[in-house]
């Protein structure tokens, strides 16, 4: 192996010193920087560029300063991650997120309007017993709708299951000849839920206490509106991205089940950590953006469950999680915290809702 000459050795040492100089500068100066002050933002971005040996124009406009700073911060996040500096990494991440928010943050009025139009402001936190005692919940609403769900009483059949039949098929496959097929028809005791109907399937335990077996809620995001269409399109985009980029944890089952959040590991190797679910080699910024979308989608859904479903279900889940000391949802690149952010049509909405349970 050929030896490096003195010039090459000096150049290599100089290159190795650059990351340390940048990280040292950030650890000393980032916390005291007001990133909303454009002069301070410009100064820190320029200094990082100089430490990297990059030239940067002195007359950048405001519209150029923050994108340039975010570019430098993304590079620094990679450095902090490679040098195992989680505190600095999170601080850089929060700074980058703050910049994004300040460059297109929805106003309080815009957030309030979205919350009300999408039923997120509902204060119907009632147990199933309270729902039944005051049924119908909304006498003005048609039966079987979101605020006046149909109540269907059903006892759970613990003897019925996959071992008793070969296939459970819907009524539109009656032509199948296998005698072990079980047809899900009303004649066999099944209730077919129409696509427009909201239903609570209830049962009574041995003490005659009502329990919810299954809840189907339709039109949870309200009537047709531009906001609803925008949000549903964002949900679809988030789901499509997750399925395209993340591992299918049930490869032998129909469809695609992608995992995000905390994971306890396989049965033979117990370990509690944020799941490593990406199968594509994405850059850090893309992973963070897609993780934030997934966390927001799950947390928004959880907020709707708490707002619209009988409180027995979410209250029991949250108490169990709290008693177990389990955290709210987070990822390898998005640390624990409160609240979620949605980006709808280029505008960032920050909501203080509690995050969803640890895994989705």
Structure commentary:
This protein is mainly alpha-helical. It folds into three domains: 7-102; 108-119 and 221-351, no CATH class; 135-216, no CATH class. 42% of the residues lie in helices and 10% in strands. The chain has nine helices and nine strands. The chain has helices spanning 6-29, 38-51, 62-82, 86-102, 108-117, 128-133, 226-245, 284-308, 312-324, and strands spanning 150-153, 168-170, 182-184, 199-204, 210-216, 262-263, 273-274, 340-344, 347-351. The strands form four sheets. The protein has a three-stranded mixed beta sheet with strand order 1-4-5, with no helix packed on it. A two-stranded parallel sheet has the order 2-3. The protein has a two-stranded antiparallel ribbon with strand order 6-7.
Outline:
With 360 residues, the chain is mainly alpha-helical. It has helices at 6-29, 38-51, 62-82, 86-102, 108-117, 128-133, 226-245, 284-308, 312-324, and strands at 150-153, 168-170, 182-184, 199-204, 210-216, 262-263, 273-274, 340-344, 347-351. The protein has nine helices and nine strands.
């Amino acid at each position: 192996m050929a030896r490096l000459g003195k010039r090459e050795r000096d150049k290599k040492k100089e290159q190795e010193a650059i990351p340390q100089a940048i990280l040292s500068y950030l650890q000393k100066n980032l916390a005291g920087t007001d990133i909303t002050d454009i002069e301070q933002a410009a100064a820190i971005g320029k200094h990082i560029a100089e430490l990297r040996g990059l030239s940067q124009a002195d007359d950048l406009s405001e519209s150029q300063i923050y994108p340039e700073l975010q570019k430098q911060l993304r590079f620094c996040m990679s450095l902090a991650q490679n040098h195992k500096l989680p505190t600095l990494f999170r601080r850089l991440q929060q700074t980058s997120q703050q910049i994004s928010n300040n460059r297109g943050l929805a106003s309080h009025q815009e957030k309030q309007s979205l919350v009300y139009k999408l039923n997120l402001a509902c204060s119907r936190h009632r147990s199933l017993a309270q729902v039944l005692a005051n049924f119908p919940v909304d006498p003005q609403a048609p039966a079987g709708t979101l605020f006046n769900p149909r109540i269907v009483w059903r006892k759970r059949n613990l003897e019925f299951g996959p071992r008793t039949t070969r296939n459970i098929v819907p009524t539109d496959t009656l032509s199948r000849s296998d005698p072990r097929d079980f047809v899900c028809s009303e004649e066999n005791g099944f209730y077919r839920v129409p696509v427009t109907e909201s239903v609570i399937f209830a049962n009574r335990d041995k003490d005659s206490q009502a329990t919810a077996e299954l809840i189907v809620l339709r039109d949870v995001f309200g009537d047709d509106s531009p906001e609803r269409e925008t949000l549903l399109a964002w949900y679809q985009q988030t789901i499509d991205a997750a399925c395209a980029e993340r591992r299918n944890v049930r490869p032998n089952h129909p469809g695609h089940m992608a995992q995000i959040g905390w994971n306890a590991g396989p049965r033979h190797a117990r370990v509690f950590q944020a799941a490593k679910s990406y199968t594509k080699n994405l850059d850090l910024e893309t992973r963070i953006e897609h993780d934030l979308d997934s966390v927001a989608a799950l947390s928004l859904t959880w907020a709707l469950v708490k707002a619209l479903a009988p409180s027995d279900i979410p209250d029991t889940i949250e108490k169990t999680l709290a008693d177990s000391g389990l955290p709210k949802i987070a990822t390898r690149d998005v640390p624990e915290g409160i609240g979620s952010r949605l980006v709808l049509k280029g505008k960032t909405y920050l909501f203080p809702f509690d995050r969803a349970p640890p895994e989705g």
